[in-house]
Fold these 3 entries.
Entry 1:
Amino acid sequence: MPESGAARRERWSALVVLLFALAALVEARRLPFGSVSAPGAGFFPLTLGAGLALLGAALVVRAFATTAAGAAAPFVTPSARARLMTVMIAMLAYAALLGSLGFALATFALMVVLFRVVESHGWARAVLESAATAVLAHVVFKAWLGVRLPPGPWGF
Amino acid sequence: MGVLSVDVLQGTVYGFAVALQPANLLACFVGVFVGTLIGVLPGLGPVATMSLLLPATFVMTPTASIIMMAGIYYGAMYGGSTTSILVNIPGEAASVVTCLDGYQMARQGRAGPALGIAAFGSFIAGTLGVLGIMLLSPPLAAAALRFGPPEIFTLLLLGFTMITYLGSGSRLKAVAMAFAGMLLGTVGLDPVTATPRFTFDTVTLSDGVGLVPMIMGLFGVTEVLVNVEAGLKQEVFQTKIRHLLPTRQDWKDSAAPIARGSVLGFALGILPGVGAIIPTFVAYALEKRLSKRPETFGRGAIEGVAAPESANNAATAGSMIPLLTLGIAPNVVMAVLLGAFLVHGVQPGPLMLREHPELFWGVVASMYVGNVLLLVLNLPLIGLWVQILKVPYGLLFPLILLVCMIGVYGVSDNIWDVVIMLAFGGLGWLMRKTGFEAAPMVLAFVLGRLAEESLRQSLLLSRGRFAILLERPIAAAFLVATVVVIVLPVALPRLRTLLTRAAAEAS
């Protein structure tokens, strides 16, 4: 029987919750539990981890017990996936390069990617919009509001 | 009673003196202006905006900061209705219901009265809400002064239960998210013994998971990702906006819905976990049931705009009460506001009224001032907000992302917090896809530390006997209420079927 996208989604998410809980339990067991009359650092996390593990198990059982019928809608369409991946990777790269490129330059690069690739603006327009954004952000946040943002090798 | 009202009167006068100081008035104006702006813009809500502006308040006094933060919240309630009416997508989640009749009114050429009644209804509800805060807070704070750890823990338990009960999706998932949120809250140094927990020997995590990166990720970045995926396109309904002032007939139709929406919204808003969204649905359903012409609902009934718009504004006022008197955040927005208080070294709660009267009365009075400002901002300046609606989302979302990253980095000066925000953004997107809600997680995250401390202190007090939670009358009452909240929704339908079956057999 072909399982629907919705059912598969339920199962995967339930398993992830259960795994997260088990990982938390393993980690919490290494903390001092104390005693019920003088609870230690591990008391609360361990209780929570056990509770979440039970909940996760219940979710798993429920997800595998019900065979939800429904249209096999894709989790995410290919074009949307490409857009989302670009956004996430661009932002992670921004976080990684902010220190070495400096705020203004890194921001300019990030904005070019977002405007050009994700929103498919033309090159000239994307570069112009990005430059404007970078300058504006620099003026507003760094100069005006005084947010500490890293300067690059050229001082901006 | 007489003494009380004198106190309230004095407090009110004092509060207005504080709220009308130039710096505080400016903070109030900036707050409601920004609030309206982000309320109008879909995809950027009060939660993300308030956490975003948190670092900007470092240079302000605590009073001015909280005045501005609160202004963003209720300002967003005003702004959200504009987008609902003109574009048929909610500018803010609490304005979803307003789309139903508001957009229909706009299509019938009655955008003006719809916008007008939304603003007036919000104003009336906001005013009544402020009055409610002033009257209810002092006695509640006085009662809360007698709370010890067992009372606080059982109250939090009640709050958690209601939070999970009032979610829109699966209850089991909501409870799981609350547990996960509390677990995330234990990351960092143990509050009692300073033992590092779940830090994996990193410096970033020894301070715990930051509230700001978490909220910005789950609410700011996630919202952008969802919209980027859907390729959000908005079309402003092309219409001339005339006659913002509702007619006599409009007023006649809306007066009672506004009154009922205000009372309902305020009362529901006080309860933990309710927020501003649920009261709008309840108010709309109530008006439809009470109406002599329920068939007009969904086809441009002005009551369908007046009631929910009043309800969401009254609810924002109601939700301030648990925060101001008990120090407990009843919804995610109040959790951010709690964060703002703590950043400025003020612990909201029963003692605040005595220790920081300027803060309590100043903020409450500023909410009245803010509502007046909003009425002025929303009626004559409506054209400005309509122009802002025409900014395409493709231009907007890179800016939202950039501001999120600057905001998070600005709070901590730590690039890892940006990474944590992005991780929560991705997680939030996956959660949306799989029907897990972020709100219970964030609330449990915020309240978890207090819950742990109060439970551990209770057990220390009682030398390990959980019975202490039942032996103290107030704590026992909270516990009983918790059980009722858990049992009632399960028992009620069964009871009904049992009764109907019995009745059928008897006849």
Entry 2:
Amino acid sequence: MRQLRALLAIVVSAFFLFPLYLVIANAFKTDPEILRSPAKPPIGPTLDGMSGVLSVGDVTGGLVNSLLITGSTIALIMVVSSMLAFALHMSNSWISNTVGTVILFGLILPTPVILIPVFRVLKYVGLENSFPGLILFLCAYYAPFAVLVYRGFMRSIPRELAEAASIDGASLASIYWSVILPLLRPATASVLVICGVWVWNEFLPPLVLLGPLQGNTVTVGLFRSVGQFDVNYGQLFSYMLFVSIPVLVFYLLLQRYFVRGLTAGATK
Amino acid sequence: MAMGAPTTALFAALVVAPIGITVHYSLNDVNFLRDEISWVGFSNYAKLWESGDFRHALYVTLLIAAASVVIPNALGLLFAVLLDAGSRLYTTLRIILFAPFVLSPLVVGLTFRWTLANDGSLNNALEALGIPGPEWIASPNLAVVSVGLALAWQLIAFATVIYVASLRAIPTDLYEAASIDGASGYLRFRLITWPLVAPAVTITTLISLISALKLYDHVVALTGGGPGRSSETVGLAIIRAGFTQNRAGLASSMAVLLLVITAATTVISLRVLRRREVEL
């Protein structure tokens, strides 16, 4: 019975691993091998696909752009949303209550709904087709989730702690910086890893807001190259592997915080 | 509140204001190429109502949303019960099983396109069992199923991990006490497990609903909305009308409708599911 359960669990997990396996296996095979038997492991693996995609495509540029955009976005999200969460935690005015409620609606907003006007707003301030414009939008778009995680976590920090510090004469900003932020570290880890994965994988906002001239993120680059690589499958799978490796590594290193952040609302 | 100002300003400028602008555009004919905008009242909405293509996109989106609520919740709970054990094997399997959720939807869509192709791995496997494989992507109905499968594959992974976390939080002495009182396996599930995983049901349902209603990336990678427009979702219809056809007014009316549907379904499900949580 115990062995049967373990076997069943392994089969189910393997089933979920299959598409990822397909990417990894076929990135190291030649085209005829891929076409003949896509599901076979790479026997005598070749690096032709990997080196080919690096020499032909804009993969390296895309990886650098995606790293830059993802890194800046999550750093900005971490700072501004923990600040908002702290402000909401400390204040009970109608303004903070309204902001706290309205920002929750950001959690359900589908991106296609607002991208056309977001482009117009960014154009109005001269940030259209630019990295800063995209970074600011992604920060605004994912801030509601980060604020939710931070606020949930702050419930375990007694308000009296900050109030005691303020009686001692510390300003709110310095309390936030020296008392609250260090306490928030586990919530920050969750915010960074979850938003990091989401921002990295984001496709439609960079496609629309960066335009064709600014250089691609890896996701946009992958999308644009699909037609191009239709004859060279080894390179297509290698491209997919390059898009996936960073998120997988990030996830495997910090998976504890990933699950904890997502379940913050589910197991309280 | 001064410390909250940066986020509030960003959110107001890049999320709240754009929603207002979308509503405004939806009541106008908008031509960005000639920089023209003219009031047309509700005629964009009337056009949507008359458009068979848009009604089909709406139908596809709602169908996938319904399936995405039922299937990941059911299979997620089932797999979670299977994987809810403390040994190292199960911990490792849970880490593996969650991996699909962190992959790019484009990558997921492309691997599914490969697996579901006429001579792809799935049909090869079916053929080996003596079952003739259907044309997954080339037939209008199965193209919708294929897109739904790609999304479900990611959502089931998510749901399983959420349910495992929820199951692990249930105190084991509850089950022991119930066993001593002679409760059967079914009764223990019905009276202990099911009520206590209610918060996991809520979060899985909401995430699935929102992911399905905004569906775009999976479709673009897997079917491109085809064959014809048979697997086009509302997300795809908005982007096509707004960018490919330069009809921002029409696209905005679709966007407003999608936003209303998303808000209504999430608020209703949240109310229903939260009530279940409270009644425990």
Entry 3:
Amino acid sequence: MTRVAVLAGGRSPEREVSLRSGHRVASALRTRGHDVVLIDPSDAPFVETLSAASVSVCFIALRGKEGEDGTVQRLLELLELPYTGTRPGPCERAFDKVLAKEGLDAAEIPTPPWAAVQVAALRDLGAGPILHRIVGRLGLPLVVKPSRAGSAMGLSFIEREADLPNAVMKALSFSDAAIVERRVDGTEVAAGIVGEEPLPLVEVVAKDGIFDYAARYTAGSTEYFAPARLEPESAEACRREATRAFLTPGLRDVARMDLMVDGEGRPWVVAVNASPGMTDTSLLPMAARAAGMGFEELCERILDLALERA
Amino acid sequence: MYQRRSMAEFSFDPFADRYARRTAEMSASEVRALFAVASRPDVVSLAGEMPYVVEDNPYGLLRFEGEPQPTLRSMDPRNVIYLGTVSKVFPPGVRVGWALAEPGVLQRLTLAKEALDLCSSNLNMLVTERHLSGERWRESLHRLVGTYRSRRDAMVEALGEHFPADAAWTAPTGGFYVWAKLSAYFGSANLLAAAVERKVAYVPGTAFYPDGRGRDRMRLAFCYPTEDRIREGVRRLGELLSDEEELYRSLSG
């Protein structure tokens, strides 16, 4: 039996998702016989509470800023507490989509062509009038998303150039930079990795066509296929690129890569999540189940990976 | 209780201060939305055509100027189902409220309530009954009204100081909230994330419309924070709005 702190909650807009994940993880680990305490970092004073809890390992079920961007991880390094998941630097580079896209490009991992718009460039450097050049370069339709936010928050799909300013403004409500990306039409799949083992791909079919926040976390609004209904070569290519997207930036223990498979069966990595959701509608647990790994076993596996480092 | 059939539809705009009416099929949620915002004289004059009007009146006694308004129910007891609660004038935790309706309706409501929770807590009802049976509740109401009036004043004053020149807001004569209306390019639902980042929150206007309107509205509560915190909150929101405005101008070239 290990005394475990499950960290969940936090102050990010994804707090609810994190809490749902955290409660589920805590209950799974308890069933497995661990002594579990659930700690919300937004309940001050976090460091004091965590120290007083005398745990030997932390399971990170946080999402969004602070929990997913390396802040909490850095703090745990300082406290010399082992934790599940990726180290601070790679966390930061995965969470920030500008850095993540640059990393993917540098490693020649296929990711849709993109551009970034920073708030400072608009406010201080007069970038507004050249915004249309993005459309000239990337074409239409486009996806616009905040660089530092998850769960499809602040995301827009645009078909017309005229809609770009509003979409950028929406994304910038969540972050100080927006990513504008060419929209790849095709099959949406999630590739989970635990340890270094790729899990079966999960195919996502949102009933109204868009896998947004509501579609993600409302049971019944999205159809899932695990394993994904892809040609074997496409599925293999997805696993290969997802594994590269996991290893190249130095992710650890667990991650979920989101990909689009285009009409010709080619995969495009569109997102890298170092702290994937663990709710009852989340994709990673679904992928694990398709591999014959139940939720409790999945949590235990992730915890073991952290304990091996203790 | 709500019959789905052809009935009057209202389009509510707290700034236009009137109701446009047209006949249409309404969904249950639209009907609920309609009743939630129905205002007094216009609705009463139409009530004859309606199955029932639900008067949900938690704030009626919290009036900062003049006497409380007469209730709809007092004007039309037959068509109005009145819902009262002590939750805004007494600790809300007691969860005590009441309904006034004609006997047939009341019978159905009683059945529905029994199905929900069998019965409210006797202890809480006794505590509430004791509070309301003396004169003390009038004194405590008087104090509450004074407190909320000062908080409203603080908010309205701070809005004048910190909000953009083209914003508009209500100066409510009662209740808990000020409604602010912003320039059309603001999206209050998206802006909320940025506001929370600055540790101030509001309810986006979209939460109050069944059809996606309200993007440019925000509901600001002055009930809980102290006057200093209200001023600070409005200052932060104003700063956010001015940053957004600057961003909008830079984006629109």
